[in-house]
Amino acid sequence: MDLVIERYWDGRPLPASEHVSMQLSWDSGDLILSVDAPYFDDPVPEHPVGSTWELWEHEVVELFLLGDSERYTEIEVGPHGHFLLLRLDGCRNIVDRTLPMQLESQIDGSRWRGVARIEGKYLPHPIRRLNAYAIHGEGAQRIYAAWTPVPGPEPDFHRLKCFPEVVFKPE
Length: 171
Description:
By secondary structure, the chain is mostly beta strands. It contains no helices and 14 strands. The chain starts with a strand and ends with a strand.
């Protein structure tokens, strides 16, 4: 499955130079997430590379995978090798927050690429809906982009009812 983030969170078009490409595939029941995104050189998290709490406060690309009964997985990857893998049961109700995953990322000039491998046991089964996001910038210049808009008075990526239905299952 290929996704392109080409809109702001509220549905306005994002400049082409800020589009993010994501590819989702399966390998032996694990999810492989490939990201190709612009690199904005935001401040690097002050944590070692690996699982990083509050990564959403930095330059990041996110994927939300929603199953039944509002059970979902939030996957966050950053250009410097930081990641965050969360499982939630109900909107914003985190039940697991220190989950492992593999991430290789590389910055190449004005773009960065990352490949993450997430064990299938951390994903909802079946995956019914999904959405993807990209965040960068600081303060008033912070940019929130979405694959599918999540309209409202402010960016809120946990508006689960806005996620489109998908057919996405291990092959």
